[in-house]
Each structure stands twice: as structure tokens, then as C-alpha cells.
Design goal:
Alkaline Phosphatase, subunit A; Alkaline_phosphatase_core_sf; PEA_transferase; transferase; 558 residues; single chain; eight-stranded mixed β-sheet; two-stranded antiparallel sheet; alpha/beta; membrane; 2 domains; elongated; cell membrane
Length: 558
């Protein structure tokens, strides 16, 4: 059905056609009512889908959590053109129903013709039903034994996998509503989680700690790590610790952050969410402040927003999912400025955490104005991506300036949750299991049209999906130190504890995150299973000479 935002494939169209034809032959009144009511919700949602996304729990949350004033502001986003197709669809629906009733009913059919029509009706309806549930059944048997963290996001059985986009829409509506209430309950319960950590000593070196979690930022797109365009002017000249070999745990936000910000402690078959960076900091006596420009509730948001709910203070720019509205990361700065000025009574060390939208696709929508569109790199999409890196550099500068204005000691860590892959490289490895047989295209070999349309996307088969910036800036730094120490994000919580000066027997006392000893045999989660990082393909940015990270750092330091 065209009014459903999520398009049906070829099989889905025939499935819907068979089902409707069967209903028409069975009973025209049932056909008419079914067609009308099935069209109702997709018709109402269609204009929304043009500006936001397919239906998900984040969108449902935005609907339930929005007040009257925000609703009027929301309606101002729509233009008359957004309603052209729904109006056209209503007109077509009206004439379809009129024609259905105008069609004369068979009067003088023989018993054989009546029997044949009943058989045909049964075949059509049965075919429509089977075609609608065949893919969910197939998916169930293929994925029922998937790892727990995969099934958390994509349960093995769901009608949202149906070829029938109408059924998929309504299944998604039901699932999204259920997920919204489940997520909301999880956030409410998170506020009551007790700190389970055993703390033996706390020796913080600084008064203010800041953790900035970036989004979708590849390390090789940063000038400070060797990118040819000057998109990190602040980081280039700032003293601090820069690691050019930090490896993300996974190529997507949910899986990356759950393996980075939580201790991977499985109890009774489930992750114990109580062991995380917020409960660790609070157990050690830190005041925690969470500031997020990503979603508060949504299929991919709750793993981070749960940490916000546990914090002493929290601020979310989005009431629903991350994709319900485009808001600049810079909007977080006024809240941070006010929070900095609020001195806690007990003079506790403070931990401020930012969760940015950063370089999340769609890149151009991350930029608040044309003034932020500075660079010209290959095409519009990639130029905007470079601009988002520059904007994050500017954001870090603003945070540091506000910290300096407090005249208190501080330390700041910035890393990105994961990287991205070139879209043309991702297309080349789609549905390919043996990566050794793949020959990746070069940007220069693409047609002019392909070059214009090329962008970056989530993937899991390239090293650059996991190569992210890792930076620490402190008030007492005296040099710009670039190191190349392979370090896995799986161990970040160890480094986090060391950074805050926390000792606990719940973490490995023999592991030292900030040492020069590299992590060996690093594995990453490719959204299906853990794989050796070294076995992944190389996916350089367009025009880059294929060199190792070590060679690039050595060249830059000459």
C-alpha cells in the first residue's frame, strides 16, 4: 500500500493484492470497512514520516511526552506539500469504495460457479496470509539462537519482518507502543538501582571531570589524526593525550555503548545493568550530571538514557527518540554552563557526561546553519560529514573554555561510539560472508553519478567502522602527546576508574588502561558475533593512500 511509509517489496505487493481480492470476493462490506480502517493510521502518519522516520518507540514516546505548546511547534514543521499525497489517496480511496459497491453481485451462478468462487476466495485469502507470515517464520528459525544482545534489539519472532508493509506497519505500531512503556519502566527502575560496586579507595586528581561521547566519527576524518583538511583546529594545537589506535567495541551505538559504558557482567543469562560508569562514579562519591542530545526513549536510545536516569542530574534535548527532531549539540552548552556554576555543598568532585549527535547520518541535518558548512570534500554528503567533525571540535573548545572560566582543575575525555563505512564499500560487501574474496571499488573508479550520491553508512565489516578518536585533555597537560597504543573499548570502564582515581576489586587490578602496553587479540562485535579486528577489511576515505595508522602518525609527527 503506497500510503504506508515503509514500502512493500514485490512479493509484498502480490500478498496485499491477493488478500484484498479474497476479501472482495468474500464480502464487499467487509472489504470496504477493512480497506478504510487499514488506511486510517498510515494516512495520518504519512506526513510525519516525511520529516522524521519510520514508526518506532522513540516516535511514540515523542507523541505521549509532548505538551500542547510543543505540539503546535511540531505542526509548524509541515507544509501544504506534505499533504498532497494523502489527499490524493483519500480521493482514490473514495472512488475505490464507490466502485466496489457499484459492482453488480453475481445472481444466477450455478452451484459449481459458487463452489469455484469459494475455492478461489479461500486460495486468495490463504495466499495473502501465508505470504504475510512466511518471512517472519523464516527469520525466526534463522535467528532464534542469536546472541542475547542481538535479540534484545531484534527478537527472533516479529510480524515487523513481514513482506506485507500494511501488516508490518501495524505490527510496528503495537511493538513500538509496548517498547515505549517497557523503556519508560526501565528508566523509572534505573533511578532506584543501588550502587553494587565495592570501593576500596578514591583519589580524584581533578575537581571537574567531563566525558564527551561522540557519534559516528571516524578517526581518519580528523585532521589531528592525519586528515588533509583542517577540520580540528582546536584539537590540533591543544595539549593532551591522543591515542590513534583506540578501537570501538561495535559498529552501532547500542552495542558499542553497552560494551563500553557497562561492565560486561552476565548474571542469570542477562547483563547486570547495575555495573556501569554512573553507579561506579556515584559509589565513589562523585556528583554526576548527564546531558544528552540523543533520545530519552527509543529502540536504540535506552541503553544510554538509562545511565542518564541514574545520574544525580539529567537533561535531554529530546523527549522521544534521537530521530524525532534535529537539534544542534551546541544547545547543550547553556545547561552545562549553569550546572558548572552550581557548587555542590559537600565539594564533591563532579562528573559531567555529554552524549552528542555528532556525525550521525543525515550529516547535513546536524548543521544548524550554512555558517557551519565550511568544507568542500568530494560531494555534499561527505562535505557535511567533515563539517560535523569541525563542529564537534568547536563544541569541545567551548566546553574547555567554560571549564577554564571556573578556575578549577579539570580533565576531559572525548571518544566516538563507532565509525562508519563508505556507502560504495558497504554495497560491495553486502551479503558477502567471505571477505577475502571481495575487491573493493575505489572512489575514483565510480561514475560521476555514483560519486555524487556516495555517502557513509553503518556497517561492521571494515576496520574504519571501529576506528574512532580517543582524546584526553587536562588542565595540567604540558604537551601534545600522540600515541599509537592499541586499546579496546571493552576495557574503557577500567580506564574510566583509573581516570577518576577509583580503586575497586570489581575490576582487574592488573590491567592498566593508560599504560603503553597494547591490548592484544582485539575482538569487535560485528552485530552478529565477535570477530578478530585484524581480519576486517580496510576502507580508506576517498582519495586516501592506503597506509597503516602507524605510518600516518609517523608522517604527521615528522
Amino acid at each position: 500500500m503506497l500510503i504506508v511509509p515503509d514500502r512493500a517489496n514485490f512479493i509484498g505487493l502480490f500478498t496485499i493484492y491477493f488478500f484484498y481480492c479474497g476479501l472482495f470476493l468474500l464480502n464487499r462490506r467487509i472489504f470496504a470497512y477493512t480497506l478504510f480502517f487499514i488506511s486510517l493510521f498510515p494516512l495520518l502518519y504519512y506526513p510525519v514520516s516525511l520529516h522524521y522516520s519510520d514508526l518506532n518507540s522513540g516516535v511514540v514516546a515523542a507523541f505521549f511526552e509532548t505538551n500542547v505548546g510543543e505540539s503546535f511547534a511540531f505542526l509548524k514543521n509541515f507544509s501544504l506539500e506534505d499533504f498532497y499525497f494523502p489527499i490524493f489517496y483519500v480521493i482514490c480511496l473514495y472512488f475505490t469504495l464507490r466502485l466496489a459497491y457499484a459492482q453488480p453481485k453475481p445472481q444466477d451462478d450455478t452451484p459449481k460457479e459458487v463452489k469455484n468462487r469459494k475455492i478461489l476466495t479461500g486460495i486468495l485469502i490463504f495466499g495473502g496470509i501465508v505470504g504475510s507470515i512466511a518471512l517472519p517464520i523464516k527469520y525466526y528459525f534463522q535467528h532464534k539462537n542469536d546472541p542475547l544482545d542481538v535479540q534484545t534489539l531484534a527478537p527472533a519472532w516479529s510480524l515487523t519482518y513481514s513482506n506485507n508493509n500494511i501488516l508490518r506497519f501495524y505490527a510496528n505500531l503495537v511493538d513500538s507502543t509496548e517498547n515505549y512503556y517497557a523503556d519508560k519502566k526501565a528508566l523509572e527502575e534505573a533511578q532506584n538501582i543501588k550502587d553494587p560496586w565495592v570501593i576500596t579507595s578514591v583519589k580524584p586528581k581533578y575537581q571537574n571531570y567531563v566525558l564527551i561521547i561522540g557519534e559516528s566519527a571516524r578517526r581518519d576524518y580528523h585532521h589531528v589524526f592525519g586528515f588533509p583538511l583542517d577540520d580540528t583546529p582546536f584539537l590540533d594545537k591543544t595539549n593532551g593525550y591522543f591515542n590513534s589506535a583506540y578501537i570501538s567495541a561495535a559498529p552501532a551505538t547500542y552495542h558499542s555503548l553497552i560494551k563500553t559504558l557497562y561492565q560486561e557482567r552476565i548474571e542469570k543469562g542477562h547483563l547486570n545493568y547495575a555495573y556501569n560508569i554512573i553507579t561506579l562514579a556515584k559509589a565513589a562519591g562523585f556528583e554526576t550530571i548527564w546531558m544528552s542530545n540523543q533520545g530519552a526513549i527509543g529502540r536504540f536510545d535506552t541503553v544510554a538514557s538509562r545511565l542518564g536516569a541514574m545520574s544525580n542530574q539529567k537533561y535531554f534535548t529530546h523527549k522521544g527518540g534521537y530521530n524525532t527532531e534535529n537539534i544542534s549539540d551546541l544547545k547543550l552548552l547553556p545547561y552545562f554552563k549553569n550546572a558548572l556554576k552550581q557548587q555542590n555543598k559537600d565539594s564533591k568532585p563532579r562528573l559531567f557526561i555529554f552524549h552528542l549527535m555528532g556525525s550521525h547520518p543525515d550529516f547535513c541535518s546536524r548543521l544548524d546553519s550554512d555558517k557551519e558548512k565550511i568544507f568542500n570534500f568530494k560531494n555534499k554528503n561527505l562535505s557535511c560529514y567533515v563539517d560535523t567533525i569541525h563542529l564537534t571540535d568547536h563544541f569541545i573548545k567551548q566546553v574547555v573554555d567554560l571549564l577554564k572560566a571556573q578556575h578549577q582543575s579539570y580533565s576531559l575525555i572525548y571518544f566516538s561510539d563507532h565509525g562508519l563505512a563508505n556507502s560504495y564499500s558497504a554495497d560491495a560487501v553486502a551479503d558477502v560472508d567471505n571477505l577475502a574474496t571481495v575487491s573493493l571499488p575505489n572512489y575514483a573508479s565510480l561514475t560521476a553519478s555514483q560519486q555524487k550520491d556516495s555517502s557513509m553508512t553503518h556497517n561492521g565489516k571494515f576496520k574504519q567502522d571501529y576506528q574512532v578518536p580517543f582524546i584526553k585533555l587536562s588542565s595540567d597537560d604540558t604537551a601534545h602527546t600522540m600515541v599509537h597504543v592499541p586499546r579496546s573499548a571493552h576495557h574503557f570502564i577500567q580506564g574510566f576508574a583509573e581516570w577518576l582515581g577509583i580503586s575497586t576489586p570489581d575490576l582487574d587490578q592488573n590491567y592498566h588502561f593508560w599504560s603503553d602496553i597494547p591490548d592484544k587479540n582485539i575482538e569487535v562485535f560485528n552485530l552478529e558475533k565477535n570477530v578478530p579486528y585484524d581480519t576486517l577489511l580496510n576502507d580508506p576515505y576517498p582519495g586516501e593512500k592506503i597506509t597503516t595508522s602507524t605510518e600516518k602518525v609517523m608522517a604527521k609527527n615528522k
